[in-house]
Amino acid sequence: MSIRFHQGDVREMGRVAGGVKGIELDKGDEVIGMVVIRRDATLLVVSEKGFGKRSELSDYRVQKRGGKGIITLKKTDKTGAIVALKEVQPDDELMLITRHGVIIRMPVEGIRVIGRNTQGVKVMNLDSGDAVVDVARVVREDEEGAEAEAATGAEPE
């Protein structure tokens, strides 16, 4: 399940405050990630059994925080649970890592954009007993420079 709400729905509070509820969890559920939408992109989800999909952000209606949310991936024995979600663009690249230490690098454009309430497509073949444990977006060199300049306040050359 996923929930999309405006950042303004979360009020500022002190360091010792307990915070506010973002999503209502069922028994056995846990939060696996959060994305702050900053660019025109798609939402990538990857499951532990190597399935993944990209969905349009417009597929996720804006709600108030604290609700149940909407289905993001149809969890089955075939797909397993979601292990990662990322905001991605077609020219991005990903690194997927498994429990047994296998790492692959792949372009995002190789993963189809499909509906939010689907199982997805196979993005990584796994050995018996292995599972995807995390996904990282590969930062391109031109992005690293822009991020460093933004952090230091330096003007681009």
What does this structure look like?
- β1 (42-47) and β2 (51-56) form a beta hairpin.
- The strands form two sheets. The protein has a four-stranded antiparallel beta sheet, with no helix packed on it. The protein has a three-stranded antiparallel beta sheet with strand order 5-4-7, with no helix packed on it.
- It has one domain (7-11, 21-152): DNA gyrase/topoisomerase IV, subunit A, C-terminal (Neuraminidase), CATH 2.120.10.
- It is built from one helix and seven strands, in the order βββββββα.
- The chain is mainly beta.
- It has one helix at residues 141-152; strands spanning 42-47, 51-56, 82-88, 93-98, 103-107, 121-122, 132-138.
- It is globular and about 45 Å long.
Looking at this protein, list some descriptive labels.
four-stranded antiparallel beta sheet; three-stranded antiparallel beta sheet; Neuraminidase; 157 residues; mainly beta; 8% helix
